[in-house]
Amino acid sequence: AITLVGGESGTLALRFEGQDGVSYVLEEATNLAPATVWQPVSNYIGSGGPLGFVDPSTTNDMRFYRLRILP
Fold this sequence. Notes:
single chain, mainly beta, 3-stranded antiparallel β-sheet, 6 strands
């Protein structure tokens, strides 16, 4: 699960638990309409603990995030 953990004004901070040695990609999209285009934001390799992401340039535009396990 991705958890919103806050952030300073104009930023967004997310956290998730990563399994040791598992590769992940965090992706974002601006809508969830059919044929949604997901853009990669950051890659991670799990260490068995929490991993995080801070988006320093949030706007009033709507964004959706998802986390995928890479092969």
